[in-house]
From TrEMBL:
Gene3D superfamilies: 1.10.287.130, Histidine kinase-like ATPase, C-terminal domain. This is histidine kinase. It is an enzyme of class 2 (transferase). Its EC number is 2.7.13.3. Signal peptide: none annotated. SUPFAM superfamilies: ATPase domain of HSP90 chaperone/DNA topoisomerase II/histidine kinase, Homodimeric domain of signal transducing histidine kinase. Coiled coil: none annotated. The chain crosses the membrane at residues 211-230. Keywords: Kinase, Membrane, Phosphoprotein, Transferase, Transmembrane, Transmembrane helix, Two-component regulatory system. It catalyses: ATP + protein L-histidine = ADP + protein N-phospho-L-histidine. PANTHER family: SENSOR HISTIDINE KINASE RCSC, TWO-COMPONENT HISTIDINE KINASE. InterPro entries: HATPase_C_sf, HATPase_dom, His_kinase_dom, HisK_dim/P_dom, HisK_dim/P_sf, Sensor_HK_Regulatory, Sig_transdc_His_kin-like_C.
Amino acid sequence: MSRKIILLIIASIIGLIALSYIQARLIKNTYSLRKEAFTDNASNTVSKIGSYGSPIDSIFDAISDTFVKDLDRYNLNKISSEQLLNRLQTISDSLNPRFIKEYEKEIDFKDLGYNLKYHRQLKNLVILDSLKTDTIFKRKKREKGLKLIGYDFESNSDLHLGTSTWETNRTFEEINEGKTEKISYHIVFETSNYINIDDWEKIILNEMRSLLIFSFCIFLFVIGLFYYSIKNLITQKKIADIKTDFVNNITHELKTPLSTLALATKILKKEEHQSPMIVSTIGTIERQNIRLQKLIDQVLNNSLGYKELSLEKQPVQSVDFISEILNDFEVSHKEEVSLGKSISTKNLELSIDKFYTTTAIVNILENAVKYGANKIEVATKNDRDYWKIKIKDNGIGISKKNQKLVFNKFYRAENKDVHNVKGLGLGLYYSHQIIKAHNGSIKVESEKGKGTTFTIALPLK
Ligand code: ATP
Ligand code: MG
C-alpha cells in the first residue's frame, strides 16, 4: 500500500477516535444532566411529604417532643449521652412502622412509576449554653449515622439529598430544693437525607435509550463510510496500477514492428534517383517513426510527471518549428481536415526540447481530428515574453465540467457523439506535463457542439 493511503488511514482513525471521544463526553454529560433532573424530581417529591398537619408531621412532632424532654434530663446529667441516643433510637424505631405506612400512602398517591425509598440519619447533635459546647453525636466520615426514620438501605452518596439543620433555643423549668430554676440551652440537630430508587441507573439509561441507539447507529454509519472509502481508494489504486502495467506491456509489444519499419525506411532512403515527392514522403515516414519510438520509450520509462521529464533544450526558430509540425500533420491528415494557418512571420529563437514540444502540439492537433473536427485553424502570436500557439477546431467540443478534467492522467470524456474513438486518455496529460516542464501554460476553451480552442504559451527566455 502506498504511503499516502497509509497516512490517510492513520489520519482517519485519529479522526474517528477524536469523534468517538467527543460523542462519549456528550453522552456522559447528558447522563449527568438527566441524573440531576431525576434526583431533583425525587427530592422535590420527598420534600413535599410530611407537610404541616399531616400524619407524618405528627410523627415527627412526637419524636421531637420526647427527644427534647430527654435532652433536658441529659442537660441535668440525669442520663448519659449513650442513654439519650438509645432513647432517641428507641422512640424513632417504635414510630417508624407508622411513618412507613403513611409514607407509602403518600408515595402511592403520587404514582411516580418507580420505587422511591427514603431515610433520615442523624449527622450531628450539639448543645450549647453560656458555659460550654457539648457535641453529643458527630458522624464520622464514611460511617453510618444514626438512622432516625425511614427505610433501611445502604446510604448511597450518589443519591444524597443534602442535610437539614434544626436549630432552636430551649428553656425549661427545674425545681431544685424547692426553688424553680429556669435553664436555657441551644440545640443544633443536623440530619442527612438519603433516597434509594431500585435500579435508578437503568431508569436513566432507559430514558436515554433513543439517544444511545441513535449515537450508536451514527457511529456504525461513520465506521461503515470510512471502511467503504478506504476500500474504494485501495481498489482505485489497484486499477490505476493495472492500467499502468497494461500501458507498459502494450508499448513494449509495439516496439518490434516499429524497429522493422525503421529498418525498411532506411533501405528505401538508400535507393537513388527517387522523385522529390517520394523523398519527402520517406522523410515524413522516418520522422514520424522516430517520434513514435521515442513516445513509446517515454511511456515505457514511465517518465510521466513533469518533474521527472529531462528536457534537452536547444535553440529553435519558431516559424520553422511550427511549419514543420503543421506540414507533417497536413500530409498525414489531408483527407480528414482542412488546416488553416496564420503564422506570424517573425522568427523567434525559442529554447525548447524540440521532441517533447512537438509531441505536446501534435497531441492537440490529433485530438481535434479524433473528436469530430473537419477544420482546424492554427495561429501563432508573439506576445511580450511568450510565444503563443492557438489551435482552434470545430469538433464536438468539451463540456464545462469536463474541461477541468481533460489534463488528468487517463481521463477520457464519455463521447456519445463519436463512436469507436480509441485512446488512453494520456495525450493531453503529456502535453500539459511537457508545457509545465518548459514553465509555460496550456489552457482550454470550448463550447459543447461548437468546437475547442487550446492555447499554449511558451516563455521566450
Ligand atoms: P490518447 O490521446 O491518450 O490516445 P484521448 O485522446 O482519449 O487518448 P486525451 O488526448 O488526453 O486522451 O484527451 C482526453 C479527453 O478529452 C478525450 O477523451 C476527449 O473526450 C476530450 N478531448 C480532448 N481534445 C478534444 C477536442 N479537441 N474536442 C473534443 N474533446 C476533446
Ligand atoms: Mg488524445
